[in-house]
Amino acid sequence: MSFRPLGSVAPTETLEIGNGLSLVPRVKLLLTIYRSDASVKPIDEWQLKRALIDFLNDSLSISLTVPEEDLDIRRFKDLKKRKREDPVASGSLCIRDLGFLNRKPNANNTDKDEDAMMLEERKFSEWKKSLVDRMDGMELNIEGVKFRLSVVVPPSDDFDGLRKGWEEFYAFQSRGHHYSRGGKKQPDTLVLKGLPSRWFAEPRVSSKPSMLVTHTIFSVFGKIRNLNVAEDDDPGKNTEESGDIVSGLQCKIVVQFEKYEHFYAALKVLCGRSMQKQGSRLRADYEATWHRDDFLPNAHATRSEALERNQSQAMTAGSYIPRYQPRNARLGPETAHPRRFKD
């Protein structure tokens, strides 16, 4: 499969990455719902969903059609214990039909079209910002009960925010794990969470993710230095409360590239997209971010582990370094100082 340059992929275009997997564009928004009146009437999630879907379809300059499965609203279970100013529900909205933002087809669409690409990215960013500004703070009236909506873009979908984060981190931190030729500290490791394990497994062999399959898939983004695949044991607070995610079905992938440029391009194209498998209707709305510490998960050993390792190495060389013991234990029961107690 010929892999097109990542720099020529518009934010509204689908990118095939091999093994039947594609990166499908989307706009994801996190929703938080508050009461804006003194009503104590129970929340109806279905009515809230219908009100938001109607708003997106009828009240915007460009009508947006959102299927019900792409809008998730769940009320909090402990509403009676919450204060009046606390949120009563949360959820997420995914807008996948972005065809109205696509540029016109161009047979000569290569790196030469850099100005057009920048214009398209700016157009997409401005539209997304206007949508967030339009929805954030809006009021919903559900049968006389008023609610206020708070809307934000997830940090993992905000590439500019992620880039600003690592630039500030390496500007003010004295340590780093990667240096460019000019001596500037830069990240090289990205982290993906919430991906189906079976999509990275060897067919008819195992349902667990395979290092070989995962390496083959992500090597299209650039040369890989290190790779780690494990079960995603932290799927998120919302999924833990709902119980929808079964342990072992999702995986966490950590990829360390040899070049900062490959890391940068990969993270940019992974942000704001979902992963889809050919022949499957499931879309994985993963989280993408960068890693600021050493790549190896167990690189930072505890002091006790380091001490035991040094002792074993010294014993192998023919010497012995005793473990730390309390002073009384070293003196022995006969020579230990007696403890003093108040009469």
Automatic annotation (TrEMBL):
Pfam families: RBD_AKAP-17A. It comes from the Eukaryota. Residues 309-343 are annotated as: Disordered. PANTHER family: A-KINASE ANCHOR PROTEIN 17A, B-LYMPHOCYTE ANTIGEN-RELATED. This is A-kinase anchor protein 17A.
